[in-house]
Amino acid sequence: MGQAQPDPFYFNIMTTFKRFLIILNVLFLILIAIFFTQNSEIVSVTFLFWQYESAQSIVLLSTFFTGAIISLLFILPFVIKGNKKTDKTADKEAE
């Protein structure tokens, strides 16, 4: 027996979807480049006794990513706890 041939319709959809993702990524990179060029002024950030000068776009993006990481760290225990509950219910259903 030979290998099963992939469905050509499915292949065309996935190829189209991959092209769409590539175009979406390129547009996103263009927007990031525009953001960096429009926010290139130097700003000073002061926190307690610490002072730092950098481009405004770098400060904004680092603030965003720091907030996203902190949010994920707060959500992580609830996600793990939820996965353990679903694993227990799946084990009970399997029995």
TrEMBL record:
Origin: domain of life: Bacteria
Domain Lipopolysaccharide assembly protein A residue range list: 38-86
TM ranges: 20-38, 58-80
Classification via InterPro entries: LapA_dom (IPR010445)
UniProt keyword list: Cell membrane, Membrane, Transmembrane, Transmembrane helix
Name of a matching Pfam family: LapA_dom
A GO cellular component annotation in the UniProt record: plasma membrane
Signal peptide from the UniProt entry: none
Protein name: Lipopolysaccharide assembly protein A domain-containing protein
Native source organism of the sequence: Fodinibius salipaludis
Organism classification: Bacteria, Pseudomonadati, Balneolota, Balneolia, Balneolales
